[in-house]
Amino acid sequence: MVEKKCRICYIGASASKPLFHPCKCSGDLKYIHLACLLARLRTTMNLDCEVCSHTFEFVYEMPEIVTKLRILCGFISLLYVVADYLFRKYWYVPDLFVYSTFLFVGFYVIVEMIPRFGPTKRPISYRMPKNAEGVSAL
């Protein structure tokens, strides 16, 4: 029996690096590691297989930090509306606290999100489609 190896690094399947085939290739070129596939896609910036021209199916998943930041931004927006109301009604609001909070959150969003959603189209994370067959290590 022929041992199944990755077509890029020529290493077999392991528990930490399983092999799968996300395209229509067959034979020795059928299997690939996820890390090898993503590295190749980052260098070529092409979502098509170089052998069979099949377009890879990616399922983009939103990072958990984005969901948390949406909740945080909603809370801070509510805080700003309340602070604005109190300022207009009573002329007393600790402006330094409100504006420093906005500055901190804005800076955090910029620093955290720009590297993740850069100007290039790169897969954030990959989940195998239901039709891709995985190969487990022996």
TrEMBL record:
The keyword Transmembrane helix applies. It is a multi-pass membrane protein. The keyword Ribonucleoprotein does not apply. One of its GO terms (cellular component) is endoplasmic reticulum membrane. Pathway: Protein modification; protein ubiquitination. It is found in: Membrane. GO terms for molecular function: ubiquitin protein ligase activity; zinc ion binding. It is an enzyme of class 2 (transferase). The chain crosses the membrane at residues 69-87, 99-118. It catalyses: S-ubiquitinyl-[E2 ubiquitin-conjugating enzyme]-L-cysteine + [acceptor protein]-L-lysine = [E2 ubiquitin-conjugating enzyme]-L-cysteine + N(6)-ubiquitinyl-[acceptor protein]-L-lysine. GO terms for biological process: ERAD pathway. Its EC number is 2.3.2.27. Keywords: Membrane, Metal-binding, Transferase, Transmembrane, Transmembrane helix, Ubl conjugation pathway, Zinc, Zinc-finger. Residues 1-59 form the RING-CH-type domain. Pfam families: RINGv. PANTHER family: E3 UBIQUITIN-PROTEIN LIGASE MARCHF6 (PTHR13145:SF0), SSM4 PROTEIN (PTHR13145). This is RING-type E3 ubiquitin transferase. It comes from Steinernema carpocapsae (Entomopathogenic nematode).
